[in-house]
Amino acid sequence: MQHKYASPKFFYTLAGQLTPWAATITALLLVTGLYLALFIAPADYQQGESYRIMFIHVPAAWMSMFIYMMMAGAGAVALVWNVKLAEIFASNCAPIGASFTLLTLATGSLWGKPMWGTWWAWDARLTSELILFFLYIGYMALQASIDDPRRAARAAAILALVGVVNIPVIHFSVEWWNTLHQPASVSKIGAPSIHPSMLAPLLLMSLAFTFYFFTVALMRMRNEILERERHTTWVARVLDPES
Amino acid sequence: MNWSEFFSMGGYGFYVWTAYAFAALILIFNLYLPLRRRKSVHRLLREFFRIKGQTR
Predict the structure, then answer these.
(1) Where in A37-194 does DSSP place strands (E)?
(2) Domain ranges in chain B?
(3) Above 60 in pLDDT, residue A243?
(4) To pair with B3 at 20 to 30 A between CA atoms, which of A156, B13, B22, B46?
(5) Distance (Å, rounded) from C-alpha A21 to C-alpha A16?
(6) Is B56 helix (H, G, I), strand (E, B) or coil?
(7) Across the strands, what pairs with A44?
């Protein structure tokens, strides 16, 4: 399948035009989100000021799962329809997703120490998030271990699709196993049990992280497209307008 | 607003600011990587086309 929008040349140009916009929206959302999170939202009645870690931790955790689903979804598209662009997108999701997973684990640890009295526990939520981190690392290692980029992408996509079972496990872990981690307060059935003054920065930070993800993913994809398409005349023209 | 009170975060300053600093680090690092790669890809490909042009 080689639709106009899926052609690397067209996408390279489009991504170049979209990146500054995505970056600007990210910056605006981040500034507003941080301002509300640190200056406007009141202290929590149980956890005091420590709960402000939530404004990083929860959006990062959502991103860790969202990026994984994007990666597995794009991997499936690349497997079934052989879309090169989907393949490039999937492989560039992995390091960004791994970063957000690491951020989730680290901020969770920094929140757990003062609130639970421990940096780490083998709680179901924590363990399944750690497995997600290993899935990202495994995906990257598998891809790096195969020389042919197309074969590497296919193998990695299969691994990503198998790992999708972990996503509902992470999501429902707080309901299935009643251990240390607190249950969801935003995505539960019915109205969220969180005050609007805390919900607003949480959603803004999540949007900021989402736009950030698309910004850096587009940047990464442009680099990889240039490298992969170096034998074409359009890349030669992009790099050397004289030729 | 009192700044020292703000930075102390009700005694949780270490945990809160380490978490935010780590987030900043992750965001900056993931922005720096593609910027650096862009530079090296452009440099490598210019070299690639230069050599290709010579052998033609």
Answers:
(1) none
(2) 11-55
(3) no
(4) B22
(5) 10
(6) coil
(7) A48
Report the gap between the CA of A20 and the closest CA in chain B (Å). 13
For Cα atoms B25, B28, B29, give the angle at the middle one, nearest 5 degrees: 80
- The beta-strand segments (E) located in A7-64 are none
Q: What is the dihedral of CA A136, A138, A143, A144, to 10 degrees?
A: 110
Q: Which domains does chain A have, with CATH numbers?
A: 15-239 (1.20.120)
Query: Tokens standing for A128?
Result: 């399944």
Q: Which residues contact A105 (CB under 8 A, 6 or more apart)?
A: A126, A129, A130, A133
Q: Which three-class secondary structure state does DSSP give residue A48?
A: strand
Give me the residues of A, 88-147, that contact B with CB < 8 A: 95-96, 99-100, 102-103, 106-107, 110-111, 113-114
Instruction: For helices A8-35 and A196-228, give the axis angle rounded to 10 degrees.
Output: 150
Distance from CA of B56 to the nearest CA of A (A): 13
The ipTM value here is 0.91
- CB neighbour list of residue A69: distance below 8 Å, 6 or more residues apart: A164, A167
Size of interface A-B (CB pairs under 8 A): 89
The answer to whether A142 and A87 have CB atoms below 8 angstroms apart is: no
Q: Over the stretch A8-47, which tens digit does the pLDDT of each residue have?
A: 899 999 999 999 999 999 999 999 999 999 998 888 888 8
- A43 DSSP assignment: P
- Which tens digits make up the pLDDT trace of A45-62? 888 888 999 999 999 999
